[in-house]
């Protein structure tokens, strides 16, 4: 079953037996590794629906989840209320008993997490919802009719959307899975008009761009463009990099190896690069079938949180600067804090020489100040003509470093 959650600066959570696309790979594409795995480990006639009772979530503790998400430094969380398999994590009236209240956990997982997040954190609570369902007979019938009929959205998908908005009042609706059908088939404009004008979240809600074939990266409150989207340059529209800590999956994989998980250094790089280009980072983790956030995911989230405690001023409330990355030293990304008029230079490699050269800032002798986030004393620097500067970093032992995986220089009075 899928339980995708995202903590967003920055974050996503999903849960399935092996991969969130397992059913499709096994039954539709009949990929050999999946077919062999099922033949070797499950009795003949075992169906995907038989996994339902095995999705137990007996260790699901929404308060613990909320505490971990808060510790990550995230500002919003997005839980997968329903993925392409159609299983809902709340007791939907339109799910035909294919939901977490009637099968498996026998709990309203959406409602429990929403309550814990709102009671224990200041995170904005959002919900992911898949428009289509791979094997729903009504959707397949509409697809056969070239989407000239709309039995599925009328009786299933749209009623679910109205239901989760009315019941849980999410501040983010993260739509996905158009099934190659246009927005007119999904009546996306009708739903969005209600959402922004008449719904209980009309004054607070934000939506993404996945509302029908052709709408992605073209319409929406923020663009996602593609999974793991990272353009590396400034975009004129607000966007989000939705990516995964597991390099290969949006779900929990029991056979994953340590090398499959991105290290904290890569996550800091993705965060710095994304924010410098005007985006948000939605960092996906995959919970287990019994409701736990695996230790490796918890560690990564807490590591990001500890980094943000030192360097958060370079991330929160910032805007893109005139340059996104440095032209002289690779691995330096810039953000701008308008409140203090401060340019933040996030650098990922501490030079052995202790000297860092920046090619972009235009320093002002007698006015410019340079500070290392988490270090009290001002740093010495020398201007390089009209543009660029050389900065002397402090000589610190590893134990004295303000953080371990990337650092921020705060530059005031630079152009």
From TrEMBL:
The record marks 242 as: May be important for catalysis. Residues 324-412 form the Alpha-L-fucosidase C-terminal domain. It comes from the Eukaryota. Residues 15-313 form the Glycoside hydrolase family 29 N-terminal domain. One of its GO terms (cellular component) is lysosome. It catalyses: an alpha-L-fucoside + H2O = L-fucose + an alcohol; a neolactoside IV(2)-alpha-Fuc-nLc4Cer(d18:1(4E)) + H2O = a neolactoside nLc4Cer(d18:1(4E)) + L-fucose; a neolactoside IV(2)-alpha-Fuc-nLc4Cer(d18:0) + H2O = a neolactoside nLc4Cer(d18:0) + L-fucose. The keyword Glycoprotein applies. One of its GO terms (molecular function) is alpha-L-fucosidase activity. The keyword Signal applies. Pfam families: Alpha_L_fucos (PF01120), Fucosidase_C (PF16757). This is Alpha-L-fucosidase.
């Amino acid at each position: 079953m899928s339980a995708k959650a995202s903590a967003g600066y920055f974050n996503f959570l999903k849960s399935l037996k092996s991969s969130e696309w397992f059913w499709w790979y096994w039954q539709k594409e009949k990929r050999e590794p999946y077919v062999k795995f099922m033949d070797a480990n499950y009795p003949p006639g075992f169906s995907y629906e038989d996994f339902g009772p095995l999705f137990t979530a007996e260790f699901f503790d929404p308060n613990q989840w909320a505490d971990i998400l808060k510790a990550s430094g995230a500002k919003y969380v997005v839980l997968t209320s329903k993925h392409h398999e159609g299983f809902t994590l709340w007791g939907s009236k339109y799910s035909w008993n294919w939901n977490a209240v009637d099968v498996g956990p026998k709990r309203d997982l959406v409602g429990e997490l929403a309550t814990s997040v709102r009671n224990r954190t200041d995170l904005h609570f959002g919900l992911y919802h898949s428009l289509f369902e791979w094997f729903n007979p009504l959707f397949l019938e509409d697809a056969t009719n070239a989407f000239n009929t709309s039995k599925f959205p009328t009786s299933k998908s749209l009623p679910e959307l109205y239901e989760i908005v009315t019941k849980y009042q999410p501040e983010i609706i993260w739509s996905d899975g158009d099934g190659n059908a246009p927005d007119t088939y999904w009546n996306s404009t009708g739903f969005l008009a209600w959402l922004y004008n008449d719904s209980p979240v009309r004054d607070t809600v934000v939506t993404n761009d996945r509302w029908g074939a052709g709408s992605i990266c073209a319409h929406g409150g923020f663009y996602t463009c593609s999974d793991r989207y990272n353009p590396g340059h400034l975009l004129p529209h607000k966007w989000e990099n939705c990516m995964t800590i597991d390099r290969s999956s949006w779900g929990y994989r029991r056979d994953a190896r340590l090398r499959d998980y991105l290290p904290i250094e890569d996550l800091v790089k993705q965060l710095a690069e994304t924010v410098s280009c005007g985006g948000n980072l939605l960092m996906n983790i995959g919970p287990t079938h019994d409701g736990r956030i695996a230790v490796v995911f918890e560690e990564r989230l807490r590591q990001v949180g500890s980094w943000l405690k030192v360097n958060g001023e370079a991330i929160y409330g910032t805007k893109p600067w005139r340059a996104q990355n440095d032209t002289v030293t690779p691995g330096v990304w810039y953000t701008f804090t308008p409140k203090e008029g401060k340019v933040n230079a996030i650098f990922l490699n501490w030079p052995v020489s202790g000297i860092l050269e920046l090619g972009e800032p235009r320093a002002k002798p007698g006015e410019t100040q340079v500070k290392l986030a988490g270090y009290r004393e001002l740093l010495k620097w020398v201007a390089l003509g009209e543009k660029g500067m050389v900065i002397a970093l402090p000589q610190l032992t590893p134990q004295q470093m303000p953080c371990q995986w990337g650092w921020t220089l705060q530059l005031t009075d630079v152009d």
